[in-house]
């Protein structure tokens, strides 16, 4: 009897029991020391798989067409980008138009800068002559007794006008006066790059408008796999999607603006900056086509690298420092060598975080322009100046002077 009880107890203690739920198709197996997932089985063994209905090819194509139309309609309503098309083959023939555009746009930039400098110089000379003539006539005119009384009346008039203004109008005038003082305190280089910074900020705001996403991706990002290849070479130079990206680039441009404009002048600087943006993008196109690593790029880094390289080449002994580590200083020549080395390694190893090809292309263009480009391009602009001067004075025999 005791042995029977021990046998029953042993059998109850052993947890290897098999339970079946007759209403379902679930078998639960339990074993000592382990757990198994639920196993779904058929109640009555194996069942014969049902025959799959034959689908005609025409029905499949019609269903796929309806599905693609439905997806396209949903994407249009949501304003999202369609799936990325497969990359085109590596054909350098596609780069012929960007090459012509690069040469033509760079030439137009320097031509426009030449005309701008001519008109600016002419305007300054004319203003100086007008002021000198007015001052000479003022000295020749005899002093009248009523002049002092007129100045007193003018002061009283402006005093009454100021007292009639509201507090808001007075504050507005004060703010505008302070802005004008701040603008006058800037260097010529800082005033020159202020327009570039404003354009970049405007494009950054356009990236935040959902209805403009397709246009921004098409025209404000440069990609050799895109249908639009030429205009994005210029527009992407003013395009930033991230505020931090734009802030970093504009800070570097602002820091070197006084040096580069004092070296080149505002007109030549703008020509070099715009040309650098297009040239660095074309170098990026070439590298992406050669490696097959297509993808969109944007940002002013290529043009800013040209500015940085030009200053460092012209003033290699200048002391530079990192904004967050001002205690560590280094020469501009050392910084330029480090930049070239990092971008070269990134290009060879295929780093994708930055467009190292555009960076390297902008850097090399800046070095070349300071060493040779200024002599070859800017100092040979005199024929264009003569042509424009003849047009402005209505023919070679016309009157007028610069």
How would you explain this protein's 3D organization?
By secondary structure, the chain is mainly α. The protein has a domain at 93-121 and 182-392: Rhomboid-like (Rhomboid-like fold, Up-down Bundle). Helices cover 64% and strands 5% of the residues. The chain contains 14 helices and five strands. The strands form two sheets. The chain has a three-stranded antiparallel sheet, with no helix packed on it. The radius of gyration is 37 Å and the shape is globular. The model is unreliable at 1-49, 68-86 and 396-401 (pLDDT under 50).
Write a concise synopsis of the structure shown.
This protein has 402 residues and is mostly helical.
State the total count of DSSP E strands: 5
| Tally of contiguous helical segments | 14
- Give the full name of the CATH homologous superfamily of one domain: Rhomboid-like
Order of helices and strands: HEEEHHHHHHHHHHEEHHH
The low-pLDDT segments are 1-49, 68-86, 396-401
**Main sheet makeup:** 3 strands, antiparallel
CATH topology grouping of one domain: Rhomboid-like fold
> How large is the radius of gyration?
37 Å
How are the strands of the biggest sheet laid out side by side?
Answer: 1-2-3
Overall mean pLDDT stands at: 78
Shape, principal axes of CA atoms: globular
CATH class of one domain: Mainly Alpha
Structural class: mainly alpha
Portion of residues in beta strands equals under 5%
Taking the alpha carbons of the first and last residues, their distance comes to 131 Å
Q: Helical content, roughly?
A: 55-70%
Q: Do you know the CATH architecture of one domain?
A: Up-down Bundle
GO molecular function: serine-type endopeptidase activity
Membrane topology: Multi-pass membrane protein
Pfam families: Rhomboid
EC number: 3.4.21.105
């Amino acid at each position: 009897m005791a042995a029977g009880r021990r046998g029953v107890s042993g059998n109850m203690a052993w947890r290897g029991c098999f339970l079946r739920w007759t209403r379902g198709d679930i078998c639960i197996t339990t074993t000592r020391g382990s757990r198994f997932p639920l196993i779904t089985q058929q109640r009555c063994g194996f069942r014969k798989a049902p025959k799959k209905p034959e689908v005609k090819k025409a029905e499949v194509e019609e269903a796929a067409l309806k599905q693609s139309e439905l997806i396209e309609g949903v994407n249009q309503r949501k304003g999202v980008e369609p799936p990325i098309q497969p990359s085109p083959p590596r054909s350098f023939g596609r780069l012929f138009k960007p090459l012509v555009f690069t040469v033509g746009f760079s030439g137009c930039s320097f031509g426009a800068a030449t005309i701008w400098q001519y008109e600016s110089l002419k305007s300054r000379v004319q203003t100086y002559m007008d002021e000198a003539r007015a001052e000479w006539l003022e000295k020749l005119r005899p002093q009248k007794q009523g002049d002092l009384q007129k100045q007193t009346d003018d002061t009283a008039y402006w005093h009454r006008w100021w007292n009639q203004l509201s507090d808001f109008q007075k504050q507005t005038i004060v703010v505008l006066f302070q802005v004008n003082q701040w603008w006058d305190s800037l260097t010529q280089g800082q005033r020159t790059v202020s327009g570039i910074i404003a354009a970049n900020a405007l494009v950054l705001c356009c990236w935040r408008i959902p209805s403009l996403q397709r246009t921004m991706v098409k025209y404000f990002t440069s990609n050799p796999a895109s249908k639009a290849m030429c205009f994005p070479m210029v527009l992407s130079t003013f395009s930033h999607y991230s505020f931090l990206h734009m802030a970093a680039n504009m800070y570097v441009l602002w820091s070197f603006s006084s040096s580069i404009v004092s070296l080149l002048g505002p007109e030549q600087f703008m020509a070099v900056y715009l040309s650098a943006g297009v040239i660095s993008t074309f170098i990026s196109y070439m590298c992406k086509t050669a490696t097959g690593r297509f993808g969109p790029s944007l940002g002013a880094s290529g043009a800013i690298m040209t500015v940085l390289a030009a200053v460092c080449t012209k003033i290699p002994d200048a002391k530079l420092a990192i904004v967050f580590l001002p205690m560590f200083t280094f020469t501009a020549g050392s910084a330029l060598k480090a930049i070239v080395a990092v971008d070269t390694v990134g290009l060879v190893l295929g780093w994708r975080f930055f467009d190292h090809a555009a960076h390297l292309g902008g850097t090399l263009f800046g070095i070349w322009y300071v060493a040779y480009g200024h002599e070859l391009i800017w100092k040979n602009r005199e024929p264009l100046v003569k042509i424009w001067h003849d047009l402005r004075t209505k023919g070679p025999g016309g009157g007028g002077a610069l």
